[in-house]
Amino acid sequence: MTKAADIGSKRLINLAPDAWVQWVTQRPEVVAKEILGSEFQWISHETDVLVKAYSTTHGDFLVLNELQLRYTAQMPLRMRVNAALAQQRYRLPTYPVLINILPPPSTLTIVNSYEQEFLGLRAIQDYHVINLWEIDAEIVFQQPLPSLLPFVPILRGGGEIAVVQRALQALRADAELNELESLLAFFASFVLDTPLVEEIMRWDMAVLRESPWYHEIEQRGIQEGARRQLIRVLEQRFGEISHEAEIRLEGKNVDQLETLMDSAIAVSSLDEFVSILSI
Questions:
Q1: Using an 8 Å Cβ cutoff, are 62 and 92 in contact?
Q2: pTM to 2 decimals?
Q3: Which of 49, 132, 191, 220 is placed for a possible disulfide with 65 were both Cys, Cβ 3.0 to 4.6 Å?
Q4: Cβ distance 87 to 93 under 8 Å?
């Protein structure tokens, strides 16, 4: 049986761990000593990668990397918990980093700290946030950062076909990077027409299914389709709907959207539907 391709977070960071920890910490003297296991976690996540790093200034420390497809409201607590568990397990200072791959809904604000106050006691966990859509694609080639090559299409300035082809050439030039071509194609489909993507690069669904983000993207595609269908029904019944109403539909899960679809068919006015949306 053919071994499944490994295109998860640990595999990506392991392509050039020194370059990765230098990039996420913005400290050129930092080096990666070891990629550690995740046995410290109560629940294992394929998107979490813990790296033991070293710098002449700070000595040994941990870099906790969380590669998240899209930021969610639960991420601050998750970063707090995982940072604490990592520090407890390895008894080293921990530098948590959240890397968001795609922008979240406009209704959600990305924060870089977990804060809670209860009965006069405060819990605080800061973490570094990197939003890939704000990163210039050119740094991937200049530094270089091979771990980010599959994400080039969604980086700033990376959606041009010439830049995507440049990333493709870099992957094909290295035997270790060949299996990442399908992941590059997948993210290229967010910014380029799918037929064009299929024409210029390999699209292997068997490989893509090994990605820790595949099933989440697939589910979000179903969710977005349901949202668009609901908007079409509302527009057919009541004409153009407000941008505010569209925004309030963002983040609704499939079950919620199906319930709202029933309401959209039953109500007699758009105002009535909006009042239901407010509940």
A1: yes
A2: 0.75
A3: 49
A4: yes
CB 59 within 8 A of CB 183: no
Model pLDDT for residues 161-196, shown as the tens digit of each residue: 999 999 999 999 988 888 888 888 888 888 888 777
| Terminal alpha carbon distance of the chain | 53
In order of 41, 51, 119, the CA distances from 7 in angstroms are 21, 17, 45
Element (H or E) spanning 36, and its range?
Answer: strand 31-36
Residue 42 is predicted with a pLDDT of 47
Per-residue model confidence as pLDDT tens digits over 227-265:
778 888 888 888 888 777 777 777 677 778 888 888 888
Do the Cβ atoms of 15 and 144 come closer than 8 Å? no
The CA-atom distances, in angstroms, between 71 and each of 24, 109, 114, 216 are 17, 9, 14, 12
> How far lies 35's CA from each of 28, 149, 210, 226, in Å?
18, 20, 20, 40
Q: Count the neighbouring beta carbons within 10 Å of the beta carbon of residue 81.
A: 15
- Cα dihedral across residues 71, 72, 77, 82: positive or negative: negative
**Residue 33 is inside which H or E element, if any?**
strand 31-36
- Paired with 116 in beta bridges are 123
**What mean pLDDT is predicted for residues 9-15?**
88
Selection from 66, 72, 154 nearest residue 109 by Cα:
72
DSSP classification of residue 192:
S
CB atoms near residue 125 (< 10 Å): 19
Cα–Cα–Cα angle for 38, 42, 45, rounded to 5 degrees: 50
